[in-house]
């Protein structure tokens, strides 16, 4: 019984969201507000039960020595984010943001060099012994010229940058088609739910 | 002769089957270049291990905390392999035994150890990453210092930046608000930091024209940074009174919940211009299509390669990848941003020249190599191999 009720609610909300294709209406508004509210509440609970509780509270109870007391630092940085509510000390919250950005930037530099830059350089170092290799080397060089910001796009640079843009657009075209296929499969998933599980039109 | 043949046959039949020989030279050492969480056990393959899984199963690896045992199996390695990485606690002695296993037999166990897992300060296999990091950081700092000294560093104009003023102006004329979305970017994403610089520029224009600015957020930390940015920007032209904290709000941390919320806001508040700046996933097209349907001027900028095609199709202007970072430099003219961009440009110029030269060198090397002279190809391969990451 509960499963049937759940299926009807899911189907009703799916149709309410689909009604947006016609125009904004009270059904869509209801589904939208419900979705936003439920997901925001879920996110708060998720952070508490999967971050704060196991990584801070429970660790503090179980860890010993320095590993226990070092937990005060993330807790303090988390708490001073709440200083935003008190105008006089709201500037304290910038420390937490600065720490997050700083750590991410520091880790990001080596991560990007090792994970992206080095493999791409290595992949582009090829002899021009096949049509594929010629297209790839020209494409990479032309695209780099497009993203070179220290020279105005004039003369030979303009032609190089334009060729780079052609390569970029070809890549985007392929990506567009690939992603559209993925989106259509998502739509098919919802229609499958409506036809098979809700209406039982197809056995 | 007949007797000799019979004796030989009998001798063959009576001789025992060849015993399974154990692995040779078993070693257990701390795994190099790790954080001190594993020990690598290696051995020389048994002579019967010819890589045929139908005859020879593999090697059983046993571990104990004392030399006399008790030993317990910690892994099994299939035939043809000669090492095993065991995850252990750091700073603790471990003893190992390895025995060969066939279908009908197993060899005696060969012992190794003790071995202790310890962390290494430096990962020597990533020397190339260290060298490149130092070079890149040096270049960026050098250019930042030049920019700080007031040196004029040229940055070409980015297409689409004029559209920011156009979009704000048009919204003001129509009496409509402006919407700015960071997508699903987090505060730690560089693209979000660049988007904040663009938000600042948009907010200054909004304050000058008295136009309402709406910034719905997916990430609470980004929201906090956006509130700071917009508040400061409204103070610049002397209009802090126009700043409304509630306009820079948190919606939800759910991807499609956020998209539904932004779509709803667009339909009801009908912004004259929408900015999508940051990192986006599948919600990009849902939001930009809605913006298009209400007739808003849309300007997008992201480094998300999979979403750029959708923005190009549905928005009036799109900043592609690093153009967005360059746009924030162009707008703010901050020495740090300018220096970073110029440093990156230096590396790009080096790569452009390097790729072209190496392509020619590699091609010449390939021709010479086919003619029996491999020296150019050897150098080409050595250069290429330097970029292998550990």
Question: In terms of topology, how is this protein built?
Answer:
The complex is a heterodimer of chains A (203) and B (390).
Chain A: H1 2-18, H2 26-62, H3 66-69, H4 72-80, H5 93-124, H6 131-146, H7 155-198
Chain B: H1 2-14, E1 24-30, E2 38-44, E3 56-64, E4 72-78, E5 83-87, E6 93-102, E7 110-116, H2 127-148, H3 162-174, E8 178-183, H4 190-209, E9 213-217, H5 220-235, E10 248-250, H6 255-269, E11 273-279, H7 283-293, E12 297-302, H8 308-314, E13 317-320, H9 322-332, H10 335-370, H11 375-386
Parallel strand pairs in B: 8-9, 8-11, 9-10, 11-12, 12-13
Antiparallel strand pairs in B: 1-2, 2-5, 3-4, 3-6, 6-7
Helix pairs in contact in B: 2-10, 3-4, 4-5, 4-9, 6-7, 10-11
Structure description:
The complex is a heterodimer of chains A (203) and B (390). Helix content of chain A is 78%, strand content 0%. Chain A has seven helices and no strands. Chain A has helices spanning 2-18, 26-62, 66-69, 72-80, 93-124, 131-146, 155-198. Chain A starts with a helix and ends in a 5-residue tail after the last helix. The model of chain A has no long low-confidence stretch (mean pLDDT 88). By secondary structure, chain B is an alpha/beta fold. Chain B has three domains: 17-116, Sandwich (Immunoglobulin-like); 162-333, Rossmann fold, CATH 3.40.50; 346-386, no CATH class. Helices cover 45% and strands 21% of the residues of chain B. Chain B has eleven helices and 13 strands. In chain B, the strands form three sheets. In chain B, strands 10-9-8-11-12-13 form a six-stranded parallel beta sheet, with helices on both faces. The longest helix of chain B is centred in the C-terminal third of the chain and has 36 residues, at 335-370. Chain B starts with a helix and ends with a helix. Mean pLDDT of chain B is 86; it is low at 10-16.
């Amino acid at each position: 019984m509960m499963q049937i009720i759940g299926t009807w609610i899911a189907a009703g909300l799916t149709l309410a969201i689909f009604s947006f294709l016609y125009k904004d209406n009270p059904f869509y508004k209801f589904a939208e507000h419900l979705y936003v509210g439920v997901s925001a509440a879920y996110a708060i609970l998720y952070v508490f039960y999967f971050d704060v509780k196991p990584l801070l509270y429970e660790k503090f109870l179980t860890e010993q020595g320095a590993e226990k007391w070092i937990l005060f630092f993330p807790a303090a940085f988390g708490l001073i984010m709440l200083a935003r509510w008190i105008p006089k000390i709201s500037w304290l919250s910038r420390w937490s943001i600065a720490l997050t950005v700083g750590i991410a930037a520091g880790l990001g530099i080596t991560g990007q060099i090792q994970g992206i830059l080095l493999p791409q350089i290595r992949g582009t170092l090829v002899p021009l012994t096949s049509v594929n290799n010629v297209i790839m080397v020209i494409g990479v060089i032309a695209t780099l010229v497009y993203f070179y910001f220290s020279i105005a796009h004039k003369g030979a640079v303009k032609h190089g940058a334009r060729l780079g843009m052609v390569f970029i657009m070809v890549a985007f075209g392929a990506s567009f088609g690939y992603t559209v296929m993925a989106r259509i499969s998502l739509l098919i998933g919802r229609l499958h739910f409506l036809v098979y599980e809700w209406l039982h039109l197809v056995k | 002769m007949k007797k000799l043949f019979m004796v030989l046959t009998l001798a063959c039949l009576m001789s025992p089957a060849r015993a399974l020989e154990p692995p040779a030279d078993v070693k257990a050492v701390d795994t190099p270049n790790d954080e001190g969480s594993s020990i690598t056990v290696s051995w020389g393959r048994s002579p019967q291990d010819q890589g045929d899984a139908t005859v020879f199963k593999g090697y059983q690896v046993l571990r104990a905390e004392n030399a006399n045992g008790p030993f317990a199996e910690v892994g099994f390695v299939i035939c043809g392999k000669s090492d095993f990485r065991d995850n252990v606690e750091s700073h603790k002695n471990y003893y190992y035994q390895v025995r060969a296993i066939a279908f009908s037999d197993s060899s005696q166990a060969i012992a190794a150890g003790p071995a202790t897992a310890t962390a290494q300060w430096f990962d020597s296999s990533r020397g190339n990453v260290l060298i490149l990091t130092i070079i890149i950081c040096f270049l960026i700092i050098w250019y930042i210092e030049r920019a700080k000294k007031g040196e004029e560093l040229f940055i070409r104009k980015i297409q689409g930046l004029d559209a920011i003023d156009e979009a704000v102006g048009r919204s003001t004329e129509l009496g409509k608000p402006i919407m700015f979305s960071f997508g699903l970017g987090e505060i730690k994403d560089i693209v979000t930091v660049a988007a904040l610089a663009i938000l600042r520029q948009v907010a200054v224009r909004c304050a000058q024209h008295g136009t309402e600015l709406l910034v719905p957020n997916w990430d609470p930390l980004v929201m906090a940074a956006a509130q700071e940015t917009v508040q400061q920007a409204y103070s610049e032209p002397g209009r802090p009174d126009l700043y409304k904290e509630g306009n820079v709000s948190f919606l939800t941390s759910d991807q499609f919940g956020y998209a539904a919320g932004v779509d709803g806001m667009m339909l009801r508040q009908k912004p004259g211009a929408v900015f999508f700046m940051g990192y986006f996933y599948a919600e990009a097209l849902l939001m930009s299509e809605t913006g298009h349907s209400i007739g808003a001027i849309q300007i997008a900028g992201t480094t998300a390669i999979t979403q750029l095609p959708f923005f190009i199709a549905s928005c009036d202007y799109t900043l592609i990848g690093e153009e967005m970072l360059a746009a924030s430099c162009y707008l703010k003219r901050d020495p740090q941003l300018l220096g970073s961009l110029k440093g990156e440009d230096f590396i790009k110029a080096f790569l452009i020249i390097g790729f072209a030269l190496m392509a020619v060198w590699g091609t010449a090397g390939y021709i010479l190599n086919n003619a029996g002279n491999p020296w150019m190809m050897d150098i080409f391969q050595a250069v290429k191999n330097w970029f292998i990451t550990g």
